């Protein structure tokens, strides 16, 4: 089905509809820049698979992730943001304005003066039965988001790098016990992070072990089916939660050949800025954040990107 765009040319185009993209839309729309936003395959981003959000300012009793996204989307709509569900398939900034091609059957094209990339990053998941079913109901890919909900409970974490060790240590603030499940007998984490984790009395290491399946009562996770990578033995063990800490994949496939990215695919932005290696393209949120990966920091860089796009347009048109 062809996309019915309101215009053939836009001042601001936003790719992504998580906290970064929606905040960019609010700021751009309030600046009378009439932005268009393409939501992509998972409107709302990772917050749509998060249940209670208790660390976003302004919600004393917390808020459901999808509700937070819905409220922010309505705010952007209120100021005149144009929304479409399509994906951006191609970007050509060899000459300005930027030419954008959509993924609809007609390969609809339009031009834009600026582009804000807020397409986020996807957590690497295990791809096992029950994982998606219990996501947000015992399974999580964000310790700082969900650790609070596991007070005095036994949880498992999968991973062997620095991030996994940091999250395991963080989770001991809440959980009664944290079991690190690792497929080998040695970790990839730096020596200092390994030492910190191994000295923590609440952390147990379960070597040569992978998770085969997440099991529950259809409401929440109850047990994990584990496999010993050396013997092949299958066991089941009760856990109240499973945290997956095996990295993220930035959603940059459509732009990786035209702007500078790091070795992991994250967009490189200038210091204290959302400016990329291309003058009319800005990046905000998890697509360029390799450190914090929080809704509030994504929203902050979304604000920055809209203001920087506005300044670019002022310089461009006077």
Keywords:
alpha/beta; single chain; seven-stranded mixed beta sheet; 318 residues
SSE blueprint and pairings:
Layout: E1 9-15, H1 19-30, E2 36-38, E3 52-53, E4 63-64, H2 65-78, E5 82-84, E6 88-92, E7 98-102, E8 109-117, E9 121-123, E10 139-140, H3 143-146, E11 154-158, H4 162-171, E12 177-181, H5 191-199, E13 203-206, E14 209-216, E15 221-228, E16 234-238, E17 241-244, E18 248-250, E19 281-283, H6 295-317
Parallel strand pairs: 1-2, 1-8, 2-5, 8-19, 10-17, 11-12, 11-17, 12-13
Antiparallel strand pairs: 3-4, 6-7, 7-8, 9-18, 14-15, 15-16
Describe it for me?
The structure is a single chain. The mean pLDDT is 94. Helix content is 23%, strand content 27%. It is elongated. Strands 1, 2, 5, 6, 7, 8 and 19 form a seven-stranded mixed sheet that branches. A five-stranded parallel sheet has the order 10-17-11-12-13. The protein has six helices and 19 strands. It has 318 residues and is of the alpha/beta class.
